[in-house]
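Reply to thread "Modeling small-molecule complexes from scratch"

Following up on the discussion above, here's a worked example others can learn from. I took a protein sequence and the SMILES for 1,3-dihydroxyacetonephosphate and predicted the complex. Inputs first:
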Amino acid sequence: MSERIRRVALVAHDNKKVDLIDWADRNRDVLADCELLTTGTTGRLVSERTGLEVERFQSGPLGGDQQIGARIAEGQVDLLIFFWDPLEPMSHDPDIKALLRIATLWNIPIACNESSADFIVSSPCFRQYTRRKPDFSAYRSRPVAGTDA
Ligand SMILES: O=C(CO)COP(=O)(O)O
């Protein structure tokens, strides 16, 4: 069944927030048609600038990346736009890696900068796409030495 990108997670580090809110403003019409999930400060800035409604989680350092990662694992996110900062070390680096890892694992499209975000929203796949959902059934029931007969 073909689907459209509907649930979009928006996250940006402080040095990239201006880039993200400018991008969101430029793509306001596209995003108005989507459910937006955001980390705390990013969400406040996006909604202040665009007037769009967003579902805001905790700020990244307080667990917001993990909350979005959990939504991805639950199959509730279609696209991750995450303008992370490649020049600054972050206190919550493990959470950032985890978010990027879980999005990769679940085959979610990820844009880490403006150019990639532009490519994704202008792609025909944005409107109609069948994302292959990975099959992890082997992980749910794999045999573990010493525990299985
Ligand atoms: O730190 C973040 C992502 O790792 C973003 O968090 P904020 O949107 O709360 O600044």
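What I'd highlight from this example: The chain has one domain: 7-140. The beta strands are 7-12, 35-38, 55-56, 79-83, 110-111. Questions welcome below.
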